[in-house]
Structures are given as C-alpha cells and as structure tokens.
Amino acid sequence: MKKVYLLGFLFLPALVFSRELKVSVFDGDLEFPLEGAALSLQGSTSSVYSDENGAAVFDVPDDVDSGIITSVLPGYAKSSVEFSSGDVFINVYMSMADVIEGEELIVKRTASQSGGEKTGVSTVISREEMQTTANVGIIEDCMSSVRTLPGVSYSGAWGSKPSIRGGEPKETSCLLDGMYTIFPWHWGGGASIFNPSIVDSIKLSNGVFSARYGRASSGLIEAETLKPDYEKFHVNASLSTTCADLFAQVPFGKNTGGMILGSHLTYLDPLCMAVKATGSDLLDSVERAPYIRDAFIKTSLTPYPELDISMIGFFGSDGIGIDLSEEDKGITTAAKLDYDIYQALGGLNVKYLVTDSFFLQGLLSYNGIYEDLEQKVTENGNVLYNQDFIEKYSSKYSGVYSGAGYELDNLETNVAERINSHLVFGKFEGEIQFSDMNQLCFGVEETFSTTTTKQNINGWSDIETSDGTFFKNINFSTYSKGNCVLDNSVYFSWVHGNENSLIESEVGVRGEFINLWNKKDDYTLNFIPDICPRASVTFTPVRNTSCFERVSFNAGSGIFVSIPMETMMFTKEMGLKNFDVHTNRALLGVIGAEAVFNGGWSVKLESYYRHYLSRIYTYSTLDAASNWEDISLFAKSNGQGHVFGLDFMLEKKREGIWDGYCSYSFVYARLKNPAGISGDESIEPGSDTELDKWFYPSYHRFHTVNLVSNWHFKNNWTLTVKGTLATGTPKEKTGGVTCYAAEMDDGTVIQRYTRSSFYSDTLRTQISCPVDLRIAKNWVSEDNKKSWEFYFALQDVFVNLYSPKGGKSFNSYTGEVSEVEDSADFNIGIPIPSLGFKMNF
Predict the structure, then answer these.
(1) N vs C: which end of the chain shows fewer Cβ within 10 Å?
(2) Share of the chain above pLDDT 70, in %
C-alpha cells in the first residue's frame, strides 16, 4: 500500500480529482488470492502489486471513465479486465500458463502447431479482436475480419474467398483445427463456415510459412476452434436480425475433458416477407429465402496428463430459391433456380507428449461436399424483326420483312447438376526439442480427393454448322466418375531460437509426389515430384527500450505448391504424359520489418515477390480439320506469372479507450498462358482464357486500404467503423451488339443478337468503398464470469451514394441494351441493418 500512496504523492496534480478502484487477484482454477501480481492501468507505465490477500488499490482520475487493468505474475498467463465509471471493485482471475499437470510432474511445454503470429510469416487475430469486425451484416463471419488484414485483396461486397498477395483464391488453403477443407464457404463464397461463436483465433500465413504445411501456393488460413472448459458449464448464445446461435460447453471433469456443441441458423424468411410487405420489389425474385444451417460438436479428452484427444464434427448446409421472371419488349422470361449444398467435416486429433522433449501428433479427417442444383428457364412472347435484321437477312429469308416476326411458345431449358466431392486427410508428425533454442519437426501426410459429377441439360441453344446457325432443342447428359488424386508428402523442419531470441530462424524442406488415376477411363498420370525448400529468419536487435518493446527485421524464401481443381478434368485425350506435368509451383521471397512501441502501437512493412515456376491452365479450341465444329480440350502446366507486392499495417492494441488499425496492400500481378495456338486453330467462342499474352487476372486490384476503428467510450459502449477503399478489377472491352439469324426445325427464322468482348489491359471497374458502422453495449458481471452484449450495425452505409458499376446487359432476341449498368460489387442497393444480442455465462 505504501507504493500506492507514494505514487499518488508524486503525481498529485493529476490525482486531485480521483476515485478508488479496488482490485482482487485470484487463481482462476483454485480461487485463492495471489500475492505479488503486478497490476497496471493500460496506458500507464506504473504498476502496483497485490498484497497477501490478493488486494490492491488504484486511484483512478475522474476524467477516466473506463479502462483495462492488466495483471502479470510469473507462472500465470497475463490477464486483463475492463472497468467502467460505475465500478468500485473488480476481480481478476489468472490461469496457469502452458502447464500440463501430472501427479508429480509439471511440464512447461506447448506444441508449436498452435504457434502464433510471426513477423514475415503470419498474422493472428484473436476471438476478442474479431468481436467488432466479424459481427456485422446479414451473416456474422470471421472472414470479414480476415479480409481487413494486409495482403488480402478486397473480394467484393458478397465475396469471402480471398486473393492473398496476388494469388488466385483457389491457391489458398483453408484449415479448420488442422483439417484441410474442400470448399469452406456458404452461398457460393458469400460467407465462410468460420463462425465467430466457435472460432477462437484465425492465423493468416501469407509469408514463408513452415514446411509442415502444403497444398497452398499463395496463402494459408487456419481457424482454431474453442477448447471446451473441463470444469464449468458455459452457454454462448446470440440472436441477431437474421441469425441465431446456441453453443454449450459441457465439462467432463478437470482431469477428464469437455465438450462443446451447438448450431448456427439463419432465418431470412421474415426479412423477405417484411420487405415485400412494404411494397418494395427489391426481393421479389426470392422464392425460397437463402438459408444456412450449421451444427458443430467438439470433444476434448485428457485421459492422461501427457495425452490429449479431440474429436470434431461439422455439418453445414445452405441454399436458395430464386424466380427471376421479367418482361422486356413483349418477351416474358421466367427463370427459376433451386440450389442446395451440404457438407460434412469430421476428424480425430491425437497429441502425445512422450517425454519432456519428444512430442507426437496424429490427425485423420474427412470432408464431403454434396451440391444439388436445378434451373428452369421458360420464354414466351412475340418478336418483331428489327430494321437492321431485315436489311441484313430479307434477301436470304422470304419470311423476313417489315412487320413480320415470330412467336416464342414455351421454350424451356432445364439444367440439373449433382456434384459430390470427397477429401480424406491423414497426418503423422513428431517434434524433438533438443534445447530451448533448437527443435526438429518431421512428418508425413496423405491426402486423397475425388469428385463425381452428374449433369443434364435439356433446352434451346444455338448450333453452328457449315450450313449456318440453327436454334435447336438439345438433350445432353454426362456422368463423370471423377479423377482420384493422391498427394503424398513428407517434410522436415529445423527451428532455431524463440520469440525472445536475437535471431529466430526456421529451415525446412517438403517433398510432394502427386499421382492421378481414373479406373473408369483406364487413365493414370504421375506428376513430376516437387522438392520445396523453405527458410526464414527474424532478427530482433532492439528489445524493451524506453521507446520500443521490440524492433524486428525479417527475410525468407521458399517454394510452395498447390493442386488446382482443373486436375479433376484431366483426361487421356488431353495428351498429358507421366512425369511431364507439374503442379502449381511458386517461388516466394519476402523481406520486411516490424516495430512495436511501448503503449500498444506497432507498425509493420513487408515487400514480396512471387515467381510462378509452373501453372496449370485449360483451354478449348476449334480446328480447321473439323470445319471449325469439333471442340478439343487441352491442359498444360507451363503457365507463367509473377507478382510483386507491398503490405503495410499500422495498429494500436487496446490499451485505453481506442484501438484499431489501418492496412494497405499494393499488388502487381501478371500471368501468361503460353498455349502456342497455331494458324489452323482458334479459341472456342465464349472462352474467357487469355492465351499467348500477358494479362492481369480477373481478381486483381492494384490497391486495397482498410481502416478499423474501435472507440470504447463511457459505460462499456463501443463504436466501430470499418471501411475499405479498393481500386477496380479488370473489365473487358465490349464491341457493338450485332444480329445474326438462326433457323428452327420448322423453318422459323429466329432473330438473335450477340456482343463481342475482348480482354483489355487498361479498362477497370470503378473503385469500391464500402463502410460499415457498429455500436455495441457490453455488460460484465462482477466476477467476470458472465457477459452480455447488444449491438446495432449498418453494413455498406453509403451504397446509395456510390456503388461501383460494371457493364450493361442486352436482350439476346431484340438487341436492346439496358439503360442501367450492373453493379460491379454485387450489393443489393441498400444499406443492410442488423441488430444482435449475445450472452455468455
């Protein structure tokens, strides 16, 4: 207590008007008072210490309405507790740090798989940091937080699939508790399966990450779910405008284990009905409201102090029903779409601490995706020939003259598609800790994947022949028992140093051997084996000075490999030969620096260059030998490319009434598909693949800026502003709308219109600048064991003032071009409000 009084005397001018805040520090497991804990008010450099009763007293200035008390004690994890103006006393509960307890053994050992943020390698966002950025909009989604990090390009208002450091979204692997996923998205990529109610942290690795990870050539996203409480029952519940979550943690006993289970549901039907009741036609096309239904269960068991077993199960589903009926120039088009997708993910993870210096882990998982799509388009109406069509074809067709036309009578096109994808993943790895400074990691992985596709198309289409173009009803069915792909991997990695060392480095190598087969087609293909060396080093010459907590410099380089979905379409007709094909391979180099200041500020700057050693691409051609009618499909792995980028992040950790960050990413990405098209070949019409020339990929943006600001004003209120400014993506140059004639079987001449489009190196869609607002009120019980939150959010606040535009559509029967440009950002045209209530106890 003398130290408290002395502190008050030295800073008497600032404490003339103050109040006392009593703090008690306890062991969170045994609930006995802790003596000697260093307590500090964040934003201040001074500390007080708890006495033998775990008590201490702060004199809080009257102008400080709220803040955070941080407690530090050797052997315990640092703990922080918020206080507000109405608090007189608070309790701080501390937990043992990284301790596994045996009957007569305490092992301070943590498996490095759960390693956190590392300069030049990865960025970690915790559950607390995602609280404001993930809980906004129709769907609360952790990817909303990931999208604000440096190195992640803006993916549109309804896009969660990220382009990381200039790579295609499919070059990024997403893991849930270490399990590879096929398609961790809902609504075709509009949202992810990473629900904030169950995710504890997400790590984005976009640098030179460890050789223990593969199947990613541009980035890695790892979501870690909550670990159940072994001793206390908890309920996490939330209710928002469109979603409901309920998750319970069930304890089995301190030395036994626990379980977390629950579900996430959307209910957009009332919202759709309410919008329609107002007379608005905004959602008239929604026949079956979009839905998400997810269930999650995780069981953790510790039968022995050295053995940890976890079992995870996830089931997700989403879908929508749309009726796009419209009338344009006397033609009625009714287009109905029913789409459902189901996915299952389950795994068993076993960790065993054999000795204090030898650790083993085994992981086995399965991921299945089942897609069901049905689409029906019906066209009716009378079409009069246009003057330009008459002038062009009246001499050829006697029925084409002024005032003449034809009737569209129930022209139906039906499309049905069923896709089943499966992925089985197995991993076994070990770690040997030679000393505090040296660690060897080694392991093997086996990943098996396959896809089966059924498709039926029954409808009307243009058929081009040497005699002209015909408008026919076609019936086309396919059943593809997809290729089977087996990825065999082995890796070694040596880690020297730790986060407190002057130099921390990691050197590793990963070997990948991939083979493909299809029993139905009697087809096998072995890829060229890949050897992927990787090395990174972090140099930290400055620590714990009067200005800096630390200053670090980093550099690294490595080869990274991914397996594109195009491999599922490989056939023997493509002419691919054994040991003549590479996977997607990229050589990455990164250099950067980070400075962490005392007081919570940090700044990070990184530059990188990625050179594609190989890239798989497919394309279709027509050739003169078949009179330009037969289509040939090709695949090659000689794709070229290079990406240069710069990432910047300025961040203020929460140590007061404000926190947030600003991130900036510059990306320059150019690709080339050197197919070598000969003079007697031509690209299939409608193909969007650029060949034999350098191009910007469709997802490319030069600049993306994100700003996240959290203002914690009085009485536990938080105002969050999340904004993005992103330059446009490549836009095709379109030609004029031109007419052509197509004949039906009965001789009726159909007037048809088309429009040419070409890749442009200069045209871009407009700038995107969505801004989200969120205001929340939090309540925390005196024992810090119960919490509530109420929030109101508004997504894309300025969409009515500014919305990026794309191109204009046209009617294929009349040639009429729409007067309004389509949105390039896929927003719905109005700000999206949401209310939410969360409860944890």
Answers:
(1) N
(2) 88
